[in-house]
Amino acid sequence: MAHSLDLSRRMALITGASGGLGEQFAKTLAEAGAAVVLASRRTDRLMVLRARIEAEGSDAPAVALDVTDTTSIKAAVAHAETEAGAIDILINNAGVSTTQRLQDVTEDGYDFIFNTNTKGAFFVAQEVAKRMIARAEAWHRAPMWAGASSTSPRWLGSRCCRRSACTA
Known about the structure:
This protein has about 170 residues and is of the alpha/beta class. The protein has a single domain (about 10-165), classed as NAD(P)-binding Rossmann-like Domain (Rossmann fold). Helices cover about 50% and strands about 15% of the residues. The chain has helices at about 20-30, 45-55, 70-85, 105-140, 155-165, and strands spanning about 10-15, 35-40, 60-65, 90, 145, 150. Strands 3-2-1-4 form a 4-stranded parallel beta sheet, sandwiched between helices. A two-stranded antiparallel ribbon has the order 5-6. A hairpin with a 2-residue loop joins strand 5 (about 145) and strand 6. Helix 3 (about 70-85) crosses helix 4. The chain starts with 10 loop residues before the first strand and ends with a helix.
């Protein structure tokens, strides 16, 4: 597949890379030349994807990541940068769902979904953003974020996350 986008000097961290959209993001970014780091709880599936990407000529380090655990997040992001360099692109794709009907979801089940899909995504983005901001400040550049800039009020990021979580 020919790509008009050259990502040859970019590094992408893909959470939830063990299947579905995360797997496709990883393959597409690798084909466009990005260095990709695969992250997921299901490391056995990451190894299969890693082998496929490496068979196509790209490197694809894999790292275990549980987005519901901030210690795991910090360790995985640090490992990703050790393996492949500074993160330029974050595909914050880790997520879970349920096949239960709305009236059958328990509080524990809801907490698991929310902690993975919302809280986990927030803290992965936060950890990556801290590193991006530190690099930008070292180069005296102001990073821009979707929906907010570095000059936005400090509380805006958490407010945006809360508002997104409440949108049906």
